[in-house]
Write a structure and sequence with these properties.
Number of helices: 18
Largest sheet: 2 strands, antiparallel
Shape: elongated
Distance between the termini: 45 Å
CATH architecture of the largest domain: Up-down Bundle
Number of domains: 3
CATH topology of the largest domain: Fumarase C, Chain A, domain 2
CATH superfamily of the largest domain: Fumarase/aspartase (Central domain)
Strand order of the largest sheet: 1-2
Radius of gyration: 31 Å
CATH class of the largest domain: Mainly Alpha
């Protein structure tokens, strides 16, 4: 129920009804500004505010004849207002209304997206603290590297999501501008004060300069911030997919009662949500690319950007919102298997401690090249057979000549690799607040 309501909220922002509502908001704000200048009688403004209305169906009907959506909108509003409608859209061009109203909808969308990301950040922090000491093997190139903790993965995502909030907040500011400056941006039929007053009424900043449109580098930044956030979602989803593989199975999507994984194989538990999110991120990147293409227009404006934006801006906002809601549920219910993590940590029979041994040999006076050769030689024998790395090293004459058994044992202690985890958490989250003592 909550998810459906949330999706509808973002969908409503980009509905035809809300689009025309925002157009009307801009037109009414313009009438208010002209009234302050004494150019519209008070009675006429009162009539406009009382009677100005539209229906999507009627606008669509008119547009079949006009083949121009703004004119169809104005015609429908005029049908309801009457003769005082002559004051509506005074001195303005279509893009004054379109671009200013679109800024309002992008700003509303940004607020919804920021809210969802902040909820994900809360979940990531909670789960990062939950698994702060959950030991697992780190992987580079998909190969076992050195020990780390599962909480560190969550903490890494936590930081990146914070940056996504900052990016979208910056993009929100960038796109929160209005433009009411006429056909080519010269204020030919209205003074700059009208634009200033309209934008103030709508909570927007007036564009310092424009031509017929607000410049599309602003929209490209907005779409880029959305695409980058989608990239973070994909990163997290890809990691979940990797960890859910049968031969790893250290973490897994929640699998509810009655859920089916395969029409052919009843045993399957597939990472379907993570796979879906990873795929959808590609659409966001494609839309961002289209936003870059929209930046270059002929002279003071053409409409090559217009048809594209009718798709990519609503779709990107709605799609990222869907992805964030799904990711929130995925992370909140993610199944984590610490026991399996420990089993996998030991799967390579001690090879993950190779650097520690090499550094111990270097500390005893061997060159790095000599130490590397000794450790690698023994490591390769472990890869080839069933030998235990520590046992091979213990029997190696060159190792025995350089370091004592106790020193070799210390090289295989997991805690050594985790000794700075607290510092990392403090660096990200700040000092842990101590509970106040009860008196």
């Amino acid at each position: 129920m909550i998810e459906r309501y949330t999706y509808a909220a973002m969908g409503d922002i980009w509905s035809e009804e809300n689009k025309f509502r925002k157009w009307l908001d801009v037109e009414i704000a313009a009438c208010e500004a002209w009234r302050a200048k004494g150019k519209i009688p008070a009675a006429s403004l009162a009539t406009i505010k009382k009677k100005a209305a539209f229906t999507v169906e009627r606008i669509d009907e008119i547009e079949k004849t006009t083949d121009h959506d703004v004119i169809a909108f104005l015609t429908n509003v005029a049908e309801n207002v009457g003769k005082d409608s002559r004051f509506i859209h005074m001195g303005m061009t279509s893009s004054d209304v379109l671009d200013t109203a679109q800024a309002l909808r992008m700003r509303e969308s940004a607020d919804v997206l920021i809210g969802e990301i902040k909820e994900i950040i809360v979940i990531l922090k909670r789960r990062a603290l939950e698994h702060k000491k959950t030991v697992m093997v780190g992987r580079t190139h998909g190969i076992h590297a050195e020990p780390m903790t599962f909480g560190m993965k969550m903490l890494l995502w936590y930081c990146e999501m914070q940056r996504n909030v900052e990016r979208i907040e910056h993009a929100r500011k960038t796109i929160s501008v209005g433009k009411i400056s006429g056909a080519v941006g010269t204020y030919s039929n209205l003074p700059p004060e009208i634009e200033r007053d309209i934008c103030k009424h709508l909570g927007l900043a007036p564009a310092p300069i424009s031509n017929q449109v607000i410049q599309r580098d602003r929209h490209a930044e907005f779409l880029s911030a959305i695409a980058i956030t989608g990239g973070t979602v994909e990163k997290i989803a890809t990691e979940v997919r990797g960890l859910q593989r049968t031969d790893i199975r250290e973490a897994e999507e929640f699998f509810k009662a009655g859920q089916k994984g395969s029409s052919a194989m009843p045993h399957k538990r597939n990472p379907i949500t993570a796979e879906r999110l990873a795929g959808l991120a590609r659409i966001l990147r494609a839309n961002a690319h289209a936003g870059f293409e929209n930046m270059a227009l002929w002279h003071e404006r053409d409409i090559t950007h217009s048809s594209v934006e009718r798709v990519i801006i609503p779709d990107s906002c709605i799609l990222l919102h869907y992805m964030l809601v799904r990711l929130k549920n995925l992370l909140d219910k993610l199944l984590v298997y610490p026991e399996t993590m420990l089993l996998n940590l030991n799967k390579t029979r001690g090879l993950i401690f190779s650097q520690r041994v090499m550094l111990a040999l270097v500390a005893k006076g061997l060159t790095r090249e000599q130490a590397y050769a000794i450790v690698q030689r023994n490591a390769m024998n472990v890869w080839k057979g069933d030998n235990d790395f520590k046992s091979l090293l213990s029997a190696d004459p060159e190792v025995k000549a350089a370091i004592k058994k106790k020193e070799l044992d210390e090289c295989f202690e997991v805690d050594y690799f985790l000794r700075h985890v607290d510092a990392i958490y403090k660096n990200v989250l700040g000092p842990v607040k101590k509970a106040a003592r009860k008196r």
